[in-house]
Amino acid sequence: MTEQVQAAAELLARAQAGDGDAFGELTEPFRRELHLHCYRMLGSVHDAEDVLQETMLAAWRAIERFEGRASVRFWLYRIATNQCLNALRGRGMSRASARPAASAGQALPPGLPAPATDREPVWLQPYPDTPADELPDASPGPEARYEAREAISLAFVAALQHLPPRQRATLVLRDVLGYRAAETADLLGWTLDSVNSSLRRARAALAENVPAAGLAQAPLPGSAAERAMLARFTDAFERGDVETLVAMLTDDTWLTMPPWPLGYRGGYAAGCLLSVLVFRGGTRRFRLVPVRANGQPAFGCYVSDAREPALVSQAAGLIVLDLGRGHIAGVARFLDNGLLPLFGLPETLRAS
Fold it and tell me: Percentage of residues in the chain with pLDDT exceeding 90?
């Protein structure tokens, strides 16, 4: 037995004897990747944090019965996945009942085109500060189909939310984490046929919601091409230049405004949204503060009245961009100012 294996065994023995510090040391290396796993399953940073805490509590209560037939990491993923499935079952009814109120198109200003859909996940939140080189170190298994950068992208996570919980769990375990079919069946307590059938349906459904190219055409984070696109976007947005902003979009750019369940597509819809809802006929002026979310460029938004000089701009949500080759393929405007602290952003911004 190597020193590393012996040390791990001793740590496990101490944890099973009731040593809380040993349990924390045993599970801490996996907290980041488990949080990310819960986020993919639930689409919400806040829900992921809650379920991660429930996972650790359940693991602490069960550590004495852990027999070591699988790794601690595999055991924790089993608990976390089942906690996510329980949360999705428990919250499904409340979210379904809340949707009609959130879908009330009457609450939106006149002058907007009909949305392409009113079924966008109202609970979706961006995941802060996760460039590809800061993702968890754990390598995916041999059957993974998605690279780490694509598997945390906002479009991918949003598409997962359209899958039924069982299909969502199967696809994340198999195609993101790379567990083999037999391992997935063991982790979920399902039959092998159930796993394979669920995965086939999940892949087919996901293909309808995720662009085939994924992030393959996006400029590399921090590259000169990305910096140039973001500088142009920032300049146009802060000047309220709708024409330039629309010109930066692809013909089928997807636009969403969580927590509104509305999705719009294309330049015409974007122009209406910008003119009517964002800049309000030129009466609002914005300042953007760059951050990153889901491994993608993002901005904290701050607004003031364009007709009056303002010493302070007020928080106005968060924008996440999905970049393509030379154009913007998606824009998500998160309206919840409560997200800004997750990115270290203030509630107000003083004039420079």
Answer: 75
**153-181: average pLDDT:** 96
Q: Which residue has the higher pLDDT, 135 or 229?
A: 229
Fold classification of 132-214 is: Arc Repressor Mutant, subunit A (1.10.10)
Which residues fall within 8 angstroms of residue 156, CB to CB, at 6 or more apart? 146, 150, 210, 214
**In this predicted model, what pLDDT tens digit does every residue of 6-47 receive, in sequence order?**
888 899 999 999 999 999 999 999 999 999 999 999 999 999
**Fold of the CATH domain 224-350:** Nuclear Transport Factor 2; Chain: A, (3.10.450)
pLDDT of res. 92 = 66
142: which 2 tokens? 């041999």
pLDDT score, position 213: 54
Burial annotation 162-197 (CB, 10 A radius, 16+ → b, else e)? bbebbbbbbbbbbbbbbbebebbbbbbebeeeebee
pLDDT at 97: 42
Domain 1-95: top CATH class:
mainly alpha
Indicate the average pLDDT of the chain: 90
Show Cβ contacts of residue 312 under 8 Å, excluding neighbours closer than 6 positions. Answer: 304, 348, 349, 350, 351
| CA–centroid distance for 227 within its chain | 23
Residue 107, pLDDT above cutoff 70: no
pTM of the model as a whole? 0.92
Q: Nearest to residue 12, comparing CAs of 69, 85, 57, 53? A: 69
Q: How far apart are CA 252 and CA 263, in angstroms?
A: 12
Q: Which two tokens stand for residue 98?
A: 């809340």
